[in-house]
Design brief:
heterotrimer, A mainly alpha (293), B mainly alpha (319), C alpha/beta (251), B: 319 residues, two-stranded antiparallel sheet, C: 251 residues, Rossmann fold, 6-stranded mixed sheet
C-alpha cells in the first residue's frame, strides 16, 4: 500500500474516532458549560452505555440490527436516568461546588465501574455489528458500518445543535449558563435544568458508546480512554465552548489515528497529556480561541 | 488556651506512644500491616499540609510518592547505593521535583489545579510504563540483597526483620508528626491557613502568597516522597502501581476521612481506610466500590472527616 | 522640588486604567501629604475604587507612575506595596470568617516579623505578637471577642475587625473603601472616633458616599468624576464648589 492509500485509511479511522469523540466531548462540554463542573465520571457513562448496548443485543434474538436500534434508544435513556438520579441525590447536595463535585464524581466513577465489574464481569466482550458490508476501495476494503458511524454521529450532532440553538429548551439552558440567579428570577427551575443537562451530557457519552460498541470490545475499564480524550478536547477547545470542542474533537480524533501509527500509544498519551496540562496552565482559554473572554 | 494546647500535645505524643507499645503485642503479620499503614500515614500527613492547611486539592500526589520511591530504588538497583544515601538522595530529588511542579502548577487554582496535578501525575505514571526497560514498568523491580541491611553509626540494621521495619517507620512517622505539629501551631501554619481562608486578604496584608503556597507544596511533596522512599527501601520493591491515580485518590480519601486540617486526621484515616479495604477485598475483587462509596458519603455528609467533625461539635482545640 | 518630595507621601503621575473600551481612570495626577486624612468622593462610576485599587496594587495600571515614600512602586505587586506600608480595607468586608478574632489579628501582626528585624528571637516574638494583637483589639474595642469566630460577629464588628487586622501590620497609609457602608448612625460615630485615634501617626484615604462623615473627618477632599479629578480642596471649599454641585446634581 502506497502512502496515499495509507493516509486515506488513517484519515477514515481518524474520522470514526473523531465522530464518537465529538459526541462524548460535547457531553462533557455541555455539563461544564452550564453547571460549571467537571464530571470525572463521564467516561463511566460511556462505558455503561456500551455495556447496555451489548446486553440488549445479547438478550434480543434475531437480526443484530434490531438489537442495535433498540440499544440506540435504551442505552442513552437508562444512562440518562442514572445520571439524573446521581445529580439530584449527590451533586445537588453539595450545591454543585466545583471542587467537591470533582471529588464526588471520582467517587461515582468507582461506584459505577466497580458495580459493572460485579454485574458484567472482568472480561472484554465483542458486540456483533448491526450489518456487514464492505466498501471496496481500489486499495483496501473498508467496513460499511464504520462509515455509517461517521454519518450517524454527524446526524446526532446536528440534532443536538438544533436543540441548543433553535428550541426553547436550548434557550433555557443558555439562560441558565449565562446567569444562574437571573434565570431563577425568571422562573426557570435551575435545579431541574442542572439535572437534565447532567443527564444529557451522560446520554451523549452513551450514544457515542453504542456506536462504538460493535467496533471496539466492551469492557468495564473502557471508560478511562474516552474520559481522557474528552478532557483533552474540552480543554483544547476552550472550556465550555461547544464550537471549539467540536473543532478540537475533529483535529484530535484525526491526528490521534495518524500519530498512533508513528508513535507508541504510551508515548503519544504522555506527550498529549503533558501538552494539554500546559495549555490549561498557560492558555486556559484554549487553543481555538473561539470563546470571548 | 495554653491548657488545651498542652493537652493536645499530650494527645499527639500519646498516639505515637501507643503505636510504640503496640509493637510489643502484635504478631509479625500485624506489625507488617501497621508498618505499611504508617508509611501511608506519612504520605497522608504530607498531602494534608497542602490540602488541609493551604486548601489546595491535588489529585496527583502519587507522583511525589513515586518520585521518592524511584529516586531511592533505582540507585540501589543499578548503582549499588547503600540504603541511607539512597534515602537522602530521594528526599533531595522529591524536594526538587515538588519545587519544579509547584512553580508551574500553582499558576492555577481550584478546579484547574486539580486537573493539572492529575494530568502531571498521569504523565509521570505513563513515563514509568514507557521507560519500563529501566523501571521494570508494571512488574516493577525487586531490590537486590545488599539493600536488605545497612550500617549506621556502627550499628547493623537488618531490614528483613519486621520489628526493625516497624521501629524505623514509627521513628520517621513520629519525627514527621512532631515537625508538622510544630509548624501548624507556629508561624508557617498561620500563613497556610490565612491563604486557605482568604488568599486575597492575605496578599493585601503583605504576604507573598505564591511563595507560601510553593513552600507548602515543597514540604508536602518532600514528605510524600520520603514516604515513597521509605516504602521502596523497607519492602525492597519499586513498581509503577505506586504512581497510578489510585494512590493519589487514596491519599485524598485518607485525609478527608480522618479530617483535613488536623495533624492526626490523616493518620486515623489511613488506619480506618486500610482496614476497611482489607476487609472488603476479602469478599470481592470490586473492593474499590468501597472507595467510591466512602468518597461520596464523605464529601456529601462529612466533609470535615472524623476529627474535623469532633473538633467542630465540641469545639475541641485540635491543630 | 526637594521639599515637595519630602512632604508628599504618595503621588501619581498621569495614571491610566481602562477596562476593555471603558476608561475607568484617566490621566490622574494626585498627591497626598504625610499625616492627612483625604476624602475621595464622587458619583457612582467615577472611578474611585479603581483608582485606589491602582494605588494598593490590586489592579495594575496601564500607564503612568505611582511613587510612595520616594519609591516608584508602579510595577510592584500588591504584597510588596503592603510591606512598604499601604493597607487596604475592602468595600465588601474581607476577613477570615472561619478563624477566631484573635487569629485574624495575629495574621496581620505576624506580618511584622517579615517586615522588620530578622534578629528578633522567636520566643520574644511570640509574646510580642500577643501584645500587638491585644493593643489592636483594645484600640478597636474588640477585646471582648478574642475567642469568637469572626463569622459570628455582627456586621459592624466585622468592619472593625478588618481595621484591627490591618492595624496590626502597622501601616503608614490606610486606604478605606466605603468604611461606613451598612453601619448604623451610632456605629458611624464610634468609627469616626476610631479614625481620629488611628490618624495620630498615619495617613488615611477615605472613599465615601456618606458626605457628612467625610466632611467631618477629612483635611482635604478630592472629587472624582468620569475617571478624572474634578476638584480638590478643603471640605468647606468643596461644599461651595459649583462644578462639584453640578456633577452631583447632574448639570
Amino acid at each position: 500500500m502506497g502512502l496515499g492509500p495509507f493516509l486515506l485509511l488513517a484519515s477514515l479511522e481518524g474520522l470514526v474516532q473523531a465522530a464518537v469523540l465529538s459526541l462524548s466531548a460535547l457531553g462533557l462540554c455541555l455539563v461544564f458549560g452550564v453547571l460549571r463542573v467537571v464530571n470525572v465520571a463521564h467516561g463511566e457513562f460511556h462505558m455503561v452505555g456500551a455495556v447496555i448496548a451489548w446486553s440488549v443485543s445479547h438478550v434480543l434474538f434475531g437480526h443484530p440490527l434490531l438489537g442495535f436500534l433498540v440499544a440506540l434508544f435504551v442505552a442513552p435513556l437508562l444512562v440518562g436516568l442514572i445520571a439524573f438520579t446521581a445529580d439530584r441525590v449527590i451533586l445537588r447536595k453539595i450545591n454543585h461546588n466545583p471542587e467537591a463535585t470533582i471529588v464526588a464524581t471520582i467517587g461515582m466513577l468507582y461506584v459505577i465501574q466497580q458495580s459493572v465489574l460485579i454485574g458484567f464481569g472482568p472480561d472484554a466482550r465483542a458486540m456483533e455489528p448491526p450489518f456487514y458490508f464492505h466498501i471496496n476501495f481500489p486499495w483496501f476494503g473498508y467496513s460499511g458500518y464504520k462509515l455509517s458511524v461517521i454519518l450517524m454521529a454527524a446526524a446526532l450532532l446536528l440534532m443536538v445543535w438544533h436543540v441548543l440553538s433553535r428550541t426553547r429548551l436550548g434557550l433555557i439552558m443558555r439562560a441558565t449558563q449565562l446567569d444562574r440567579e437571573m434565570a431563577q428570577v425568571f422562573g426557570i427551575p435551575v435545579g431541574w435544568v442542572y439535572g437534565l443537562v447532567f443527564a444529557a451530557g451522560a446520554m451523549l457519552a452513551a450514544l457515542g458508546a453504542v456506536l462504538m460498541a460493535p467496533i471496539r470490545q466492551v469492557h468495564y475499564l473502557m471508560g478511562l480512554d474516552p474520559l481522557l480524550m474528552s478532557f483533552i478536547v474540552v480543554i483544547i477547545g476552550g472550556l465550555g465552548s461547544i464550537r471549539g470542542a467540536l473543532l478540537a474533537a475533529l483535529v484530535i480524533g484525526m491526528s490521534d489515528g495518524i500519530i498512533s501509527m508513528f508513535f507508541s500509544p504510551t508515548l503519544a498519551k504522555m506527550i498529549s497529556t503533558l501538552l494539554v496540562a500546559l495549555v490549561l496552565i498557560f492558555k486556559p482559554e484554549g487553543l481555538f480561541g473561539l470563546r470571548k473572554s | 488556651m495554653e491548657n488545651s494546647r498542652k493537652s493536645s500535645l499530650v494527645l499527639h505524643i500519646g498516639v505515637l506512644a501507643l503505636l510504640f507499645l503496640l509493637s510489643f503485642i502484635l504478631s509479625d503479620y500485624h506489625q507488617l500491616t501497621i508498618t505499611r499503614i504508617m508509611v501511608l500515614a506519612i504520605f497522608a500527613l504530607g498531602y494534608n499540609i497542602l490540602f488541609g492547611y493551604v486548601g489546595l486539592l491535588s489529585l496527583g500526589h502519587a507522583m511525589f510518592f513515586a518520585c521518592g520511591l524511584y529516586a531511592a530504588g533505582l540507585p540501589v538497583y543499578y548503582l549499588g547505593w547503600e540504603v541511607p544515601s539512597a534515602f537522602l538522595f530521594a528526599i533531595v530529588i522529591s524536594a526538587f521535583s515538588a519545587t519544579l511542579i509547584g512553580a508551574i502548577a500553582l499558576r492555577t487554582q481550584g478546579v484547574a489545579f486539580m486537573i493539572v496535578t492529575l494530568m502531571f501525575s498521569q504523565v509521570a505514571y505513563l513515563a514509568t510504563l514507557y521507560f519500563s526497560d529501566i523501571t521494570g514498568g508494571d512488574e516493577g523491580l525487586v531490590l537486590p540483597e545488599h539493600a536488605r541491611s545497612f550500617a549506621i553509626l556502627g550499628m547493623q540494621v537488618d531490614l528483613t526483620s519486621p520489628q526493625t521495619r516497624y521501629y524505623i517507620t514509627l521513628g520517621l512517622l513520629s519525627a514527621s508528626v512532631l515537625i508538622v505539629y510544630r509548624w501548624v501551631n507556629g508561624g508557617p501554619g498561620r500563613e497556610w491557613v490565612a491563604v486557605r481562608e482568604n488568599e486575597l486578604r492575605t496578599r493585601m496584608l503583605g504576604y507573598n502568597t505564591f511563595l507560601i503556597k510553593l513552600k507548602a507544596m515543597v514540604i508536602s511533596g518532600t514528605l510524600s516522597g520520603g514516604a515513597g522512599a521509605t516504602y521502596g527501601l523497607l519492602f525492597a520493591y519499586i513498581g509503577s502501581t505506586f504512581a497510578s491515580i489510585q494512590y493519589s485518590i487514596d491519599v485524598l480519601l485518607f485525609t478527608l476521612l480522618g479530617g483535613a486540617g488536623t495533624v492526626l486526621g490523616p493518620i486515623l484515616g489511613s488506619f480506618i481506610m486500610f482496614y476497611m479495604i482489607d476487609f472488603f477485598s476479602g469478599y470481592t475483587t470490586a473492593y474499590l466500590l468501597a472507595t467510591g462509596v466512602v468518597l461520596i458519603l464523605l464529601i456529601v455528609y462529612f466533609p470535615l472527616g472524623v476529627l474535623g467533625t469532633l473538633r467542630k461539635k465540641w469545639r475541641l482545640w485540635l491543630p | 522640588m526637594e521639599a515637595l518630595v519630602a512632604v508628599s507621601l504618595l503621588s501619581t503621575k498621569k495614571l491610566n486604567r481602562r477596562f476593555g473600551g471603558v476608561v475607568a481612570v484617566k490621566d490622574i495626577d494626585f498627591s497626598l501629604e504625610q499625616g492627612e486624612i483625604r476624602g475621595i468622593i464622587g458619583p457612582n462610576g467615577a472611578g474611585k475604587t479603581t483608582f485606589v485599587n491602582l494605588l494598593s496594587g490590586r489592579l495594575a495600571s496601564d500607564s503612568g507612575q505611582i511613587v510612595f515614600r520616594g519609591v516608584d512602586i508602579t510595577g510592584q505587586p500588591a504584597w510588596k506595596r503592603a510591606r512598604l506600608g499601604i493597607a487596604y480595607t475592602f468595600q465588601i468586608t474581607s476577613i477570615y470568617p472561619g478563624l477566631t478574632v484573635f487569629e485574624n489579628v495575629a495574621i496581620g501582626a505576624q506580618m511584622r516579623s517579615h517586615q522588620s528585624s530578622k534578629s528578633r528571637p522567636w520566643t520574644d516574638w511570640k509574646t510580642n505578637l500577643e501584645e500587638i494583637v491585644g493593643s489592636c483589639l483594645r484600640m478597636t474595642g474588640l477585646d471582648w471577642s478574642r475567642t469568637r469566630l469572626a463569622a459570628e460577629l455582627a456586621y459592624g464588628h466585622q468592619r472593625l475587625l478588618e481595621i484591627a487586622v490591618n492595624l496590626a501590620v502597622d501601616p503608614v497609609l490606610f486606604i478605606l473603601d466605603e468604611p461606613t457602608q451598612g453601619l448604623s448612625v451610632d456605629e458611624i460615630r464610634e468609627f469616626t472616633d476610631l479614625l481620629r485615634r488611628i490618624r495620630s501617626d498615619r495617613t488615611i484615604i477615605l472613599i465615601e458616599h456618606n458626605l457628612p462623615f467625610v466632611m467631618n473627618l477629612a483635611d482635604r477632599v478630592t472629587v472624582m468624576d468620569q475617571g478624572g479629578i474634578l476638584a480638590e480642596n478643603d471640605p468647606k471649599g468643596i461644599q461651595v464648589d459649583a462644578r462639584v454641585k453640578a456633577a452631583y446634581l447632574g448639570e
